[in-house]
Amino acid sequence: MTKKKITAIYPGSFDPVTNGHIDIIKRSIKIFSRVIPAILVNPEKKPLFSIEERLEMLRDACKELKDVEPVFFDGLLVEAAKKYDASVVIRGIRAVSDYEYELQMALMNRSLHEELETLFLVPAQEYSFLSSRLVKDVYRAGGNIKNFVTPFVAEKLKEKFNL
């Protein structure tokens, strides 16, 4: 039996990419033939890292993963999904509060592109609390983040905060 080739897109800000993101990507590639981690260009947000920096960190984090292609996009997720021939959106859910927002987004995406399915994945327990914002906050306050990001991301945070 031949496995059906399905591309999934995993959108996010990835500011910066965390081990929680990488966990979701690694588990997604076991399910889908191709995974596109896609950095959303959101003019309403004030990211710490530029698009280029986030893409560099995401590419480094995924460099050993076959069939994973980090990209960035602006505009609607459904248009990016069409561009990359993705039929599934991957979203990580850490808590009930995430679910409420993500459900609204999934339903909106389905109303805009009815063939686009959303799959919610729960992160590994050790990452269930982790977010890019928390990593930045902990680092800014002098905390140890080595279990939360790759060494490359930790170095980029050090450069950004001049620590």
Explain what you see.
β4, α4 and β5 form a beta-alpha-beta unit. The protein has 163 residues and is α/β, with parallel strands linked by helices. Helices cover 42% and strands 17% of the residues. The chain contains 6 helices and 5 strands, in the order βαβαβαβαβαα. Strands 3-2-1-4-5 form a 5-stranded parallel sheet, with helices on both faces. The chain has one domain: HUPs (Rossmann fold). 30% of the residues are buried. The longest helix is centred in the middle third of the chain and has 17 residues.
Descriptive labels:
single chain, 163 residues, alpha/beta, Rossmann fold, 5 strands
Shape: globular
- The number of helices is 6
Number of domains: 1
The CATH class designation is Alpha Beta
Helix % is: 40-55%
Helix/strand structural class:
alpha/beta
**Quick check: average pLDDT?**
93
Question: Span between N and C termini?
Answer: 54 Å
Strand proportion, as a percent range, falls in 15-25%
H-E string: EHEHEHEHEHH
CATH level 3 topology: Rossmann fold
Evaluate the radius of gyration.
16 Å
**Largest sheet properties:** 5 strands, parallel
The order of strands across the largest sheet is: 3-2-1-4-5
CATH architecture identity: 3-Layer(aba) Sandwich
State the total count of DSSP E strands. 5
Which ranges are low-confidence, i.e. pLDDT below 50, for 5 or more consecutive residues? Answer: none
CATH superfamily: HUPs
